[in-house]
Amino acid sequence: MPREIEPSLNEKQFVLQALQEKFRLDGRQFDQYRPLELTFGDQYGVADVAFGKTKILAKASAEVTVPYADRPLDGVFAIATELSPMASPAFEVNRPTETEVLLSRLLEKTVRRSGALDTESLCLVAGQKCWSIRVDVHVLSHDGNLIDTACFAVVAALRHFRKPDTSVEGGILTVYTPAEREPVPLSWLHSPFCVTWSFYGDRGEIAVLDATWTEEQIRVASCTISLNRHGEICQISKLGGTPVEAVALLQCTSIALTKAKDFSVFLDKKLAEDTKKRNIGGFMAELRSENDR
Amino acid sequence: MPLDTSAYSLALLRVDGRRWNELRRMHAQIRTQAAADGSSYLEMGHTKVMCVVTGPSEPGPRRSAVGASGGTGVGGGSGEAAQAEVAVSIVIAGFSSVDRKRTARGDKRILEMQSTISNALAGSLHTHLYPHSAINISLHVLSQDGSLLAALINAATLACVDAGIPMTDYVAACTAGSTSTYAAGDEAADPLLDLNQQEEQELPGLTVATLGESDRVAVLVCESRVQVSRLEGMLAVAVDGCKQVREILDRVVRDKGRRMVQEGTIEKGVGVNDMEID
């Protein structure tokens, strides 16, 4: 199994001492994210998110399937994460590393179990037909903080996604092509965002947001908090590592809430821009009978 | 739902008759398996787990990628094995819960718990004393009734103490919840200590593990939707509960030590004097 090269002792000490003196290598504040970029693809449901040099592409897709026997009224919703060797030589195909398991578990808890997508709305014919929504997460470039980036990408992709419109008449299900009927957005209930803190120092007293890969390799503990803009925690996971004061964790949570609100505003803005871009000419263009010919 | 926890507001008693700040009966034993380096058996109410520790010993040829962590590093690998690797495996018995479900081999929930326990203990164990070695912790769940992760962490701590692996302090864990769901304006919501299965399914809750008597949190896992304002109360109650759990664990270890000295299994050594042996 290939291993990631660890930062050298000098490198470690340099970063740590800088952190002790309240500096980060890229000159950011401790609670500052790298510049966030979000681009939507030409298709619906493709979101490309970049936090600095970390880049993740999420693609949502839908198909009609048979629902699970024990949940006849629910649709199927799955998030698939794959860390390919493209992102880092430590990742192998078909052998999930610990990072990958924890990442997919976190996304599952944040987006799926918190009920962000109303799965009951995916049901078409009870017990026979339902939509299966699948989000594929591809890590294109890995420079730390995969969790926050992946979560943002998944939420953005799902919010942007439109599934084909359907109708059921006399027990016959019709799925319309985009040309016949405008695709419809998913029934989305709330947008959770992950905020990951990394801790440094013997007692974990230094807390840093959005760690780069070098910073991530030398951290002593991390804590991921998922929140939506209504101030609801969807999930918290601090899975071991150096113990951190409980009071510090509470402070981290309140800062995380402001970050989640920022993300929410940013995503809403981008989605609005995208809708505007797609809707050239507005409603009038749609009503016009002329065409380019 | 078989029972409704909303009856709490009437008499301030929970489904099993406890008050908000009461732990369930906790019973623990150490050195239960003679053949193992360290072993323990722990009950938190009806949640029953067993733990066996082997090591520190030479690592085997096969290394699992998940649930093994070297030392304190969370992000990075253990590198040239300057620290002992803590490998955790969890087996959930088929008869442990009401519905006899077969757990898949690569169940992500179990893998996550393994990696959590491994990382939490690696933060307390002095793994740097045992380079190029492995500490294998195998946990067996015999009966499930809520607070599973907390019970597993406590059992693993006890077994590591029994195995004689140097550690900073006990890693003691327990759960806490809140009486109402995520309705924002509900100010009357009480935090609850040590959730059982029913409460865990119906109410928001979190699992906390702290190091020794300090307020320092090693593990904090919350898997349900809950208001941010509710977190502080829940965390405070959970940290307080962890301190109670630590006292119980400590008593178990001291009682066992005292009995072993009395029975003559071990000699009363230097430094044992401060153990208050009568």
From TrEMBL, chain A:
Q: Does the keyword Transmembrane helix apply?
A: no
Quick one: where is this thing mainly located? cytoplasm
Domain of life per record: Eukaryota
This protein's GO cellular component annotations are:
cytoplasmic exosome (RNase complex); nuclear exosome (RNase complex); nucleolus; ribosome
One short Pfam family name for this protein? RNase_PH_C
Q: Which residues form a coiled coil?
A: none
> What Gene Ontology molecular-function terms does this entry list?
mRNA 3'-UTR AU-rich region binding
BP GO annotations? exonucleolytic trimming to generate mature 3'-end of 5.8S rRNA from tricistronic rRNA transcript (SSU-rRNA, 5.8S rRNA, LSU-rRNA); nuclear mRNA surveillance; nuclear polyadenylation-dependent rRNA catabolic process; rRNA catabolic process; TRAMP-dependent tRNA surveillance pathway; U1 snRNA 3'-end processing; U4 snRNA 3'-end processing; U5 snRNA 3'-end processing
InterPro entries, A to Z: ExoRNase_PH_dom1, ExoRNase_PH_dom2, ExoRNase_PH_dom2_sf, Exosome_comp_Rrp42_subfam, PNPase/RNase_PH_dom_sf, Ribosomal_Su5_D2-typ_SF, Rrp45
- SUPFAM superfamilies attached here? Ribonuclease PH domain 2-like (SSF55666), Ribosomal protein S5 domain 2-like (SSF54211)
State if Nucleus is listed as a keyword. Answer: yes
Subcellular localization, as worded in the UniProt entry: Cytoplasm; Nucleus, Nucleolus
**Annotated keywords:** Cytoplasm, Exosome, Nucleus, Ribonucleoprotein, Ribosomal protein, RNA-binding, rRNA processing
Q: Where is the Exoribonuclease phosphorolytic domain?
A: 32-164, 191-257
Family assignment? Belongs to the RNase PH family.
What is this protein's record name?
Exosome complex component RRP45
Automatic annotation (TrEMBL), chain B:
For the region Disordered, what residue ranges are annotated?
A: 56-76
A GO molecular function held by the record: RNA binding
InterPro entries according to UniProt: ExoRNase_PH_dom1, ExoRNase_PH_dom2, ExoRNase_PH_dom2_sf, PNPase/RNase_PH_dom_sf, Ribosomal_Su5_D2-typ_SF, RNase_PH
In Pfam terms, one family for this protein is RNase_PH
Q: Tell me the organism.
A: Podospora didyma
Under what name is this protein listed? 3' exoribonuclease family, domain 1-domain-containing protein
* One GO term of the biological process aspect: U4 snRNA 3'-end processing
Q: Which GO terms describe its cellular component?
A: cytoplasmic exosome (RNase complex); nuclear exosome (RNase complex); nucleolus
By sequence similarity, the record places it as follows: Belongs to the RNase PH family.
Q: Where is the Exoribonuclease phosphorolytic domain?
A: 22-166, 169-240
